[in-house]
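Reopening this ticket.

The earlier resolution said the output was attached, but the attachment link was broken on my side. Pasting everything inline this time so it's all in one place.
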Amino acid sequence: MKALTVRQPWAELIIRGQKDVENRSRTTTHRGQLAIHAGLGLDSSEPKVQGELDRGAIIGVVDVVGCVQGSKSPWAVSGQWHWLLANPRRLSKPIPYRGALGLWTVDPATEGLIRSRLRAGPTACGRSPRPPPAASSG
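Inline output:
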């Protein structure tokens, strides 16, 4: 699984589903799941976010669905590549992990832990997933 380190509060806004674009100086061909690692750095000049911000940990997963310049998202910064993000999922518990620059690969054991904490965790809206409806006998 690929991962991206993002400073707080941006990582939290991504996992909350509020920030749908990640601005980067480089394009990406990656599509699909992307673990979001909240870096140790804190961008204190940017939006204030309610609650405690996890840092130095993988906090969730999003899907990269495209990469463009000129996105209409209010989060898009002119002159940057806009990694288009969708379907944010928060882990049931953050995983302490050392991040890296650029797109990087999570080790297999941690990937398994991410997958197990996605299944066990709440949705991006903070609710547990709804169980499937009972099968009808008709």
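Reporter confirms the inline version is readable. The longest strand covers residues 81-96. The first helix runs from residue 10 to 15.
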